[in-house]
Design goal:
This protein is of the alpha/beta class and 423 residues long. It has 14 helices and 15 strands. α3 crosses α6, α7 packs across α13 and α10 packs across α11. The protein is globular, with a radius of gyration of 20 Å.
Length: 423
């Protein structure tokens, strides 16, 4: 075995578990993306009535008892489903894995709002008598809840963290896992991002007050990134979780390898609470490329963050143009156009939706891009129909969030000659 394959700093993805509004496995999700199938539907939320949302429909009780689900949270339930799916998919001999050497690192945009809103509503029916307040409130609302619920379910005794990184959180979960594996703090990392956001009316109300909540008579056409007629964010729930391992360990057990995490970066705009900054985003992209020892022309697919907000799409377009304008072969796509904005899960789901391109060499489209905004004029955008690629070896995944937090992750196809491949 070559020395490069023995490098413990090389980190690979060996298992995938997900639930999205248009699929409950990677194969279902990918099929929907290539077929142009949206998961956005009409939805009712407290006090506001009809809105649009990306809603997941997975079996909450496949890996969880009803008693535990009642005690826990929707974010925890999503996390448990996705983590178990990832572990099963990885081929790990889980019964013989040292659980104290497993870490759980999950990104999330916000947590605790769902439970707090629900419990306040409940006590309002009893004249706000706090003796009716749920004794489960504290463990439901602590920030580490989603990752902690996974450790309880899978009997993991290693470290766990839920990482608050706004809508950059999905990438942040992977980045934390990579760092902990390289530091030899853990041998296996269960990492990614989750969101329960559609279950809090507050997020809908806040976006509505900003004039940033999407509306459309056809829910499937509501999320329109880069389109001149875009009208705002469609809130979604979901989860994308992977098992990550050091490359020598994965090869030693003959694991299937979906891809190698080659580079990453995080930075801050330090300029506004909600308005993004194209210059800082471009700096984050360039830093990730530098750490991966890549040039812009080495990237085959850019998974854009674009949320279908007016200025947000423009700023990211400027950032992408400054890095990739001289490289017409790169394919730029957007997953939110299919499922809405899955907040803490967005970065993870958007990456995973593109990973099968290593095998099928197709870049899924950005749907609903009928009237491209001249201010978002990127000739590399894959619009409405998937694009066949001559090469599909490197994916760059953008994920940006409020308070100016930016994250970029680069994943590379694992070389065929080394075995253990995605196929």
């Amino acid at each position: 075995m070559s020395d490069t394959l023995l490098d413990p700093h090389r980190i690979v993805i060996t298992g995938v578990g997900l639930t999205a509004p248009n699929g409950n496995s990677l194969s279902e999700f990918r099929e929907s993306l290539l077929a142009g199938r949206s998961g956005v539907v009409d939805y009712e939320t407290r006090y506001m009535g009809p809105v649009l949302a990306g809603v997941c429909d997975f079996d909450e009780f496949r890996y969880q008892k009803r008693k535990d689900r009642r005690r826990g949270t929707r974010a925890g339930s999503i996390s448990i489903y996705c983590a178990n799916e990832a572990v099963n998919d990885s081929g790990l001999d889980w019964e013989n894995v040292r659980r104290d050497r497993v870490g759980v690192y999950l990104g999330i945009t916000e947590h605790g709002n769902v439970e707090t809103e629900n419990e306040i509503y409940e006590i309002s029916q009893f004249d706000y008598d706090t003796t009716c307040w749920s004794h489960h409130h504290n463990p439901r609302t602590v920030a580490n809840n989603p990752a902690g619920e996974v450790t309880l379910n899978l009997q993991i005794t290693g470290p766990h963290l839920t990482l608050g990184a706004a809508c950059a959180a999905g990438n942040a979960g992977f980045i934390q896992a990579v760092q902990m594996l390289r530091l030899n703090e853990v041998d296996i990392a269960i990492a990614g991002g989750v969101s329960e956001s559609i279950h809090t009316f507050g997020i809908f109300a806040s976006f509505a007050s900003q004039g940033a909540l999407a509306q459309h008579e056809d829910p499937t056409k509501a999320c329109r990134p880069f389109d001149k007629e875009r009208c705002g964010i469609v809130v979604a729930e979901g989860g994308g979780i992977c098992t990550l391992e050091r490359l020598p360990d994965a090869i030693a057990r003959g694991a299937r390898i979906y891809g190698e995490i080659l580079g990453y970066a995080m930075n801050s705009d330090a300029s506004d609470f909600v308005l993004p900054n194209a210059s800082r985003q471009a700096e984050c992209i360039r830093l990730a490329l530098s750490r991966a020892n890549l040039q812009p022309q080495d990237i085959d697919i850019v998974s854009s963050h674009a949320t279908a907000t007016e200025q947000g799409d423009i700023e990211e377009s400027r950032a992408l143009a400054s890095v990739f304008n001289e490289h017409p072969a790169v394919a730029i796509n957007n997953t939110k156009s299919f499922i809405g904005h899955a907040m803490g899960a967005a970065g993870a789901l958007e990456l995973l939706g593109n990973v099968p391109a290593f095998d099928d060499r197709m870049a899924h489209a950005t749907i609903n891009l009928d009237h491209p905004d001249p201010c978002c004029a990127l000739p590399q955008i894959v619009a409405n129909e998937p694009r066949s690629l001559e090469r599909a070896e490197c994916i760059l995944n953008n994920s940006f969030g409020m308070l100016g937090i930016n994250s970029v992750l680069i994943v590379r196809k694992f070389p065929a000659e080394h075995g253990g491949l995605y196929n």
